Amino acid sequence: MLKIAFIAHDRKKDEMVNFVIAYEHVFVPHKLYSTGTTGTRIMEQTNLTIHRFMSGPLGGDQQIGALVAENEMDLIIFLRDPLMAQPHEPDIIALLRLCDVQGIPVATNIATAEVLVKAIERGDFAWRELVHKYKPGADE
């Protein structure tokens, strides 16, 4: 079971909902998280249960980032709007940096999201078990 988070900027929420509908069967066995509005929209259109955090600008990105920092997240699908300035851009950059530090894959557009979901379908995420097992400091 993977821990997967969904985040979508306002102009990307419809795209996220449609994506999750298309791959709902892939997400069913996993533990799902999301920022507030994105999670609500997904749950309204699917049968998925999603743990929702606050809206991104109100701290939801940071709440997901806290799980990332503890290496408690396996994958993030974050559909960003590159053409719209975001008032909480520092939070977004911090979340992406934490993903890089922890080696957590993050898709920022629909193309990479699809590649990662296809990997989940194939069972290609066994390497996450190695990351958890051999994480520096895990023995301490």
UniProtKB/TrEMBL annotation:
One Gene Ontology term from the biological process aspect of the record: methylglyoxal biosynthetic process
Catalytic-site annotation from UniProt: D61 (proton donor/acceptor)
Signal peptide positions (record): none
Residue intervals of the MGS-like domain: 1-140
Annotated TM spans: none
Role this protein plays: Catalyzes the formation of methylglyoxal from dihydroxyacetone phosphate.
Family of this protein: Belongs to the methylglyoxal synthase family.
Cross-referenced NCBIfam families: MGSA, PRK05234.1
Protein name: Methylglyoxal synthase
GN (gene name): mgsA
